[in-house]
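Progress narrative, work stream C.
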Amino acid sequence: MPLDLADKKLLNRLQIGLPLVKRPWDSFEDELQLQYEDIRKRLERLQQEGIIRRIGGVFNPSALGYRGCLYAMEVDESRFAHTAAVVNRFKGVTHNYRRRNRLNMWFTLSSRFEEDRTAILSEIGEAAGHTGIYAFPTKRVFKLRVFLNMEEQGADGERSGSASKPLLHPATDVNWEHRDWELIRELQGSLPLSELPFDEISARIGCEPEEVLERLQRLHSAGALKRIAAVLMHRQAGYTANGLFVAEVPEEVLEKAGTRLAGHTEVSHCYERQAYPEWPYNLYAMIHGTDERIVRSVAEEFALKEGIGKYELLFSTAELKKTSFTI
């Protein structure tokens, strides 16, 4: 079923996030001029159609004591399927993609303990035939916010309009209590689509609704909970092309270049990462578009304006795994 304007407005608003209040849908009714029952039915349909992947908590693993890193490796085709299965088996792997490049498998891994990470990478390396695994830790974040603009997405591939500002919080050392972890686990699933969703969650974990809201505010203030929002399926939402842009940028201009790249509405993630002699790229960005032409034009125009001579654009050709962070 084609999306109407109300669907698109609802998807945009829900990507920004739900307010952490007792009746969160009331603000949606006022802003979108939709009644709650209409909102609920639309969301149920959009989930059934696969446009909404999930509605729930979006967390910052580092603020919860986890360390994440991006990895890439060159996997021979004869071992690719087996290696992907091994990589995907680990709960700490949330994303795994086949990309059009010599380094053809890219995955993220989060863990609380270094010995766990070492053991997991050893098993993955063995499955891949002991190929080298590149680690690309984040050195600096310029943008970390996925927002697929559904309203201004032109049918002809026209670029979307205003950029969504990233909501970034520094990682903090907080001693989270058992009840916090219970709440986090609940929000890593699907939020109830009732008028009082946090009341339902409070009943599940055995506490008062006011305590749930207080704990959510604390999680958010500490940077552990980024937002409670809708996560969309890119392709089903019309964004059928996504490319990993990697560029070699001189250190003295990297901050300004990264900030300008992060300002593009098509860019959801933008980082400074570890470079290697044989892989000299230090600026990374995920660029999304309704087709590859859009993604290429963003990369090419940026490289031209910044005077970047060495860069690559790695298109995703298969989504091998994509899940939300879970504890």
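Work stream C, second folded protein:
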Amino acid sequence: MDQSLADIDTLIREEKRLSAVESCEDAWADGLAAGIEPDIMAEAAIATALTELLQSSGESTALSMIEKMRERLLAGEFARDLSFH
């Protein structure tokens, strides 16, 4: 089965995304183990990500990312079963 370059690029991008998620999850676990509160880690992670994105891709890309993440948050994409609260 022949895959188009677009299909291959999509697969590569997804592999990179999964690797990034794994790295972030590892760093999060390390922070928790060090006693750092989740809200502190979240603020630091978001600020670091936005700083890097702003430097590499510019303000419009960073603002677009913020809006996309806001929409995903409002849609409940990041919600886990919170019944234990």
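Residues 14 and 20 are 10 Å apart (CA to CA). No further action is required on this item.
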